[in-house]
Every structure is written in C-alpha cells, then in structure tokens.
Design brief:
By secondary structure, the chain is mainly β. The protein is built from no helices and five strands.
Length: 101
C-alpha cells in the first residue's frame, strides 16, 4: 500500500523543474543522514593492460534525494546527472530500483 506524498521540491527531477542529462546508473545508498542528500556507492571495473586483469573500484557520489523518493541506506537507486546543485552535488536520484529488505 503506497501513500501519496506531496512533493513541492523545485529540485525534484520528477515533479520539479530539474532536468537530467548525461550519465545514468544504478547504485547503493550508503548514507541518507543529510537533508535531501544521499551518498550513493557505485561499483565499476577497470581493465589493466599490463597485468591483463580487471581491477574492481568504487566511487561515492552525493546525490539529491527528493522528499517524494526519500531513499534510505541500503536501497538500490537510479541516479541521473543534472546541473550543479551545490558544491558536491551534481546528480539526482530518479527512482528506487530495490528497497532494503
């Protein structure tokens, strides 16, 4: 049973005026302690030609977390690139793929 949350956030990519562009990916929310901000961890691999093997790496990105989505730590979310929102935020969460079990 889902409840409708009124979203009056102008920076919401779904209900507001924020346009998304460029990079889109899925990641795991590590922290959502800050107001309307979530830290999303992205895992990726890089091929090292010298050793002919893959190297696993990760990156932590600060993303805007609107009230209507309200992702919590442990959720897998879709993230899209947007204009610069603050000193550290250039991404916005567009939806939850898999909520924390």
């Amino acid at each position: 049973m889902t409840q409708e949350i009124k979203c009056d956030d102008p920076r919401c990519p779904i209900h507001g005026r924020l346009k998304t562009r460029g990079t889109r990916f899925a990641g795991l929310v590590v922290s959502s302690k800050a107001k309307r901000t979530a830290i999303v961890k992205i895992d990726y691999t890089i091929y090292l030609y010298k050793y002919e093997r893959y190297l696993r790496k990760h990156s932590r990105i600060a993303a805007h977390n609107p009230d209507c989505i309200n992702a919590k730590a442990g959720d897998t979310v879709n993230v899209a690139e947007a204009r610069r929102l603050s000193k550290t935020k250039s991404f916005a969460i567009t939806g939850i793929v898999k909520p924390k079990a």
